[in-house]
Amino acid sequence: MKILVTGTEGYLGSLLPPLLIARGHEVLGVDTGFYKVGWLYNGTEVTAKTLNKDIRNITPEDLQGVEAIVHMAELSNDPTGQLAPNITYEINHLGSVRLANLAKAVGVRRFVYMSSCSVYGVASEDDVTEESPVNPQTAYAECKTLVERDVKPLADDDFSPTFMRNATAFGASPRMRFDIVLNNLSGLAWTTKEIKMTSDGTPWRPLVHALDICKAIVCALEAPRDIIHNQVFNVGDTTNNYRVKEIAEIIADTFPGCKLSFGNNGSDNRSYRVSFEKINTILPGFKCDWNAQRGAQQLFDLFSQIHMNEDTFLFRGFTRLKQLEYLIRTQQIGQDFFWNKQ
Q1: Phi and psi of 196, rounded to 5°?
Q2: In this structure, how many other beta carbons lie within 10 angstroms of the beta carbon of residue 19?
Q3: Secretion signal: which residues (predicted)?
Q4: Which of 1, 51, 112, 252 is deepest in the core (most CB within 10 A)?
Q5: Is residue 172 within 8 Å of residue 299, measured between CB atoms?
Q6: By percentage, how much of the chain surpasses pLDDT 70?
Q7: Nearest to 275 by CA among 125, 144, 99, 103
Q8: Three-state DSSP state, 98
Q9: Tens digit of each residue's pLDDT (9 = 90 or more) over 229-260
């Protein structure tokens, strides 16, 4: 199968293509290059040929012969959405819907969209399912719900969208991110020997390892059409719902000599437990291989191997907001987030 993967120079995007290529698929990447500077370790044997292009500029010619698209190239995470809400909507919502329409028009048969469990926001139920009402709290999460809303009606006999609502990702990637909770706390534990939380750590977060997300994508691409056609899947495992406090405790136990403390700030009202029964029941071949303990140990082993230091941990290339602010400040990208010609 010829598969176009958007965001191949990102955290998940650098891990997925080697897995697809190893399974005999032909992979073409697309990435605008915002995070090209962030490379933590040499962890992949092959990389996909990648078009250096903004998803807003993808043309029908770019999609010739493509049978499936895995779309993950959006402005990621809540702080980035707050930096430029209008551009977040332009890229994440309108850009993604445009790509889906373009894909359908040129005959792409499968469209796997990377959504997020953050669409649940503040959940009133014990374990939210794919049928639960969404309650997005940020521009980033709102855009995910809008893309799902607008792409679902495109489904027909020739075009099958699938929506993967990923839990909060964690784990090692060559294009590392230190702005997601388990990775960030692990970096603090390694570089400062202390996790000093301002919050009380009571909110719930579902976690899923980056490689388990990639596994879910591979399973969705290779599953019979009737299983994935216009379906929403929460991606993760129900046992991997943790309170933030529990995540911190797991990391403190894994990183020797790390001191842990909590505050009384409860300002983060995002809290949700998620049921992952559907994906684990009906998507052939899917089962999570990782939990928070194993992920924390993976990061400890990696940091030991590469002798990671504080400068590396704090480097802008590994934090989405820092890198985008740098590109804007140095006028490498404009307020529209297109690259300026030098």
Answers
A1: -115, 95
A2: 17
A3: none
A4: 112
A5: yes
A6: 98
A7: 125
A8: helix
A9: 999 999 999 999 999 999 999 999 999 999 99
End-to-end Cα spacing for the chain: 38
Distance CA 250, CA 245 (A): 9
Strand order in the sheet with 68-71: 49-52, 26-31, 2-6, 68-71, 110-116, 160-166, 231-235
* Coil vs helix vs strand at 115: strand
Fill in the amino acid letter for 138: T
- Strands, E assignment, 38-190: 49-52, 68-71, 110-116, 160-166, 168-170
- The SS3 of residue 69 is strand
Q: CA–CA distance from 85 to each of 178, 336, 340 (Å)?
A: 22, 11, 20
Residue linked to tokens 């010829």: 2
- What b/e string do you get for 172-194 counting C-beta neighbours within 10 Å, with b at 16 or more? bbbbbbbbbbbbbbbbbbbbeee
Length of the chain: 342
Name the least confident of 57-71, 116-130, 284-298: 116-130
Provide the token pair at 44: 């992949």
User: What does each C-alpha distance from 136 to 145, 202, 206 come to in angstroms?
Assistant: 8, 19, 16
Amino acid present at 25: H
* pTM > 0.85: yes
Residue with tokens 């980035």: 80
